[in-house]
Design goal:
Blueprint: E1 2-5, E2 10-13, H1 24-37, E3 43-44, H2 56-67, H3 80-92, E4 102-105, H4 109-119, E5 125-130, H5 135-142, E6 146-153, E7 159-160, H6 162-168, E8 173-179, H7 191-203, E9 207-211, E10 237-242, E11 255-258, H8 261-274, H9 280-291, H10 295-316, E12 331-332, H11 337-343, H12 347-358, E13 360-361, E14 363-364, E15 376-379, H13 384-402
Parallel strand pairs: 3-13, 5-6, 5-8, 8-9, 9-10
Antiparallel strand pairs: 1-2, 4-11, 6-7, 10-11, 12-15, 14-15
Helix pairs in contact: 2-9, 3-9, 4-5, 4-8, 10-13
Bound molecules: pyridoxal-5'-phosphate.
Pyridoxal-5'-phosphate binds near residues 107, 109, 133 and 183.
Length: about 400
């Protein structure tokens, strides 16, 4: 327990709060906005948010729902029509999904929290990648359990090291977290590794949480089918997905989980206790996103493919930077260790220098765990012209550091 003193009272904060962590992206965004308020020009490569607007037909569906008076409470686990649309959408990706196993939430984030709260006892262990989206570590700790990190192979498209994962499993391991395509590395897990991981999960009776929020952003090779399509995995896997990235709907707050049947009612109960229900107009917008034209999504993917090329070329031309073009998501994760070592600084100091001295907001790899040391994460979900100008400044910074 932590005791906080203010002038009037001593407030005791429950110790479970000590486990919760923040998100580097939101912290850097706040610092960048503070600089903008002082009149500085900042290039935003920090936040994982498509710069595209939400497509008009999606917005119109939300507005129409409000005009039609859909302003009341609804079912905690989501409107049936949306759960049907999600199940149909997943079925087109080869995933056997029933609407009753879909739980709708305000973003995909709550599904991560519900998974930890519903499955982990105090002292249990959850295997999470390092580097990784920081909320995995946070929710596992909040549930009183231990995150046990596994490394990603930076020499091979940042895929999980299956042998290292196998070696980390103990009698307390309950959960294996996978994220593909991955934030922050852009790594995509190949079919062979998914099969090996599925086998490992089955042999050790693990629940797999697979975060596929970046599924549409897969460049190059044909998309790898989800781990849920492997026989036996649907029953032991929680799929985490949402509308934020694919449909440029970050601020709407709409996501979902596809869960093993016994978990659906538990997750809905957590949703009921937490937020009661996602606003109906947001869910109507989600239905329009899934059932309407996919043209806006396809143009966004095409544009991101061009930006991926642009950012990879610009980064690889900078002395002291090594990069392989990311296989998926919309992040470049270059190795800048040669430059940081030459300058005698770490990546957090480098990222801070880039923001404060050059006006480029991006994230140090360590915002995603100790395994991110030596790397920066640059989001390319931002305009080509901004990427271009930001990379000129990044180059200037590296030149001054290494000269
Ligand atoms: N999962 C990953 C890997 C992410 O990068 C993010 C957001 O950046 C989320 C989940 C959460 O997205 P949302 O809650 O907006 O659906």
């Amino acid at each position: 327990m932590t005791t906080v003193s203010s002038s009037a009272i001593q407030l005791s904060i429950a110790s479970r709060m000590d486990g919760l962590r923040g998100e580097g992206a939101f912290e850097v965004l706040a610092s960048a906005r503070a600089l903008e308020r002082k009149g500085r020009q900042i290039f935003h490569l920090e936040i994982g948010e498509p710069d595209f607007p939400t497509a008009p037909h999606i917005v119109e569906a939300g507005v129409r729902a409000l005009q039609n008076g859909e302003t009341k409470y609804g079912p905690a686990g989501g409107l049936l029509e949306l759960r049907v649309a999600i199940a149909n959408h997943l079925t087109t990706h080869g995933i056997n999904a029933a609407p009753d196993d879909v739980v709708v939430a305000p973003g995909s984030k709550p599904i991560l929290l519900y998974s930890a709260l519903a499955l982990l006892e105090s002292g249990d262990e959850a295997l999470i990648p390092d580097p990784a989206y920081p909320i995995y570590d946070s929710v596992v700790r909040f549930a009183g359990a231990h995150p046990v990190t596994y490394r990603l192979d930076s020499s091979n498209n940042f895929v999980p090291d299956v042998e290292a994962i196998a070696a980390s499993i103990t009698s307390r391991t309950r959960i294996l977290v996978l994220n593909t395509p991955q934030n922050p590395t852009g790594g995509v897990i190949d079919a062979g590794r998914l099969a090996a991981l599925a086998q490992l999960a089955e042999a050790n009776d693990l629940i797999v949480i697979v975060d596929e929020i970046y599924r549409p952003f897969n460049y190059g090779a044909p998309p790898v089918p989800s781990i849920l399509t492997i026989p036996g995995m649907r029953e032991r896997t929680i799929l985490v997905d949402g509308f934020s990235k694919a449909y440029a709907m970050t601020g709407w707050r709409l996501g979902y989980g596809l869960v093993p049947t016994p978990l659906a009612a538990r997750f809905a109960l957590l949703a009921l206790n937490d937020h009661a229900c996602v606003p109906a107009f947001v869910q109507r917008a989600g239905i329009a996103a899934l059932t309407g034209t996919q043209e806006p999504l396809h143009s966004m993917i095409n544009e991101f493919a061009v930006r991926r090329q642009l950012i990879s070329e610009r980064l690889s031309a900078i002395p002291g930077v090594r990069i392989t073009a990311p296989a998926g998501a919309f992040y470049a994760f270059p190795d800048v260790s040669a430059a940081t070592e030459a300058a005698g600084i770490n990546v957090a100091q480098l990222a801070s220098k880039l923001l404060n001295d050059y006006g480029v907001a991006l994230l140090p790899g360590t915002a995603f765990g100790a395994g991110g040391e030596g790397h920066l994460r640059l989001s390319f979900a931002t305009a080509r012209s901004d990427i271009d100008r930001a990379l000129t400044l990044v180059r200037e910074c590296f030149t001054s550091l290494t000269s």
